[in-house]
């Protein structure tokens, strides 16, 4: 993978992760690097799912693939926030 490909994946991952954070209600206290990591993973997994379902090859913008990626990012953000929220300091 070239440097341009890595930079593109990080930018797309940040956008997909940010969209996933917007979908999840409430405040998410996760760092930007974790949002980017979730976004990159969701983008890759979403592309695989879209190709397997036969909806990745469309003319123009792949709205179905983008929808799948954002839903996966939202699920990833919700899981990370849920797991991280349980590790909070006890108030007693």
UniProtKB/TrEMBL annotation:
Transmembrane annotation, as ranges: 6-24, 31-54, 66-85
Keyword Cell membrane in annotation: yes
Record keywords, A-Z: Cell membrane, Membrane, Transmembrane, Transmembrane helix
Localisation per UniProt entry: Cell membrane
Membrane disposition: Multi-pass membrane protein
Superkingdom classification of source: Bacteria
Annotated family: Belongs to the UPF0410 family.
Protein name, UniProt field: GlsB/YeaQ/YmgE family stress response membrane protein
Organism: Phytohabitans kaempferiae
């Amino acid at each position: 993978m070239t440097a341009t490909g890595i930079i593109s994946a990080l930018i797309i991952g940040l956008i997909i992760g940010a969209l996933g954070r917007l979908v999840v209600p409430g405040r998410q206290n996760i760092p930007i690097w974790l949002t980017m990591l979730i976004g990159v993973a969701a983008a890759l997994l979403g592309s695989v799912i879209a190709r397997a379902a036969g909806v990745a090859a469309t003319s123009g913008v792949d709205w179905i693939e983008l929808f799948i990626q954002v839903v996966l990012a939202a699920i990833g953000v919700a899981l990370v926030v849920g797991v991280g929220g349980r590790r909070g300091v006890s108030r007693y």
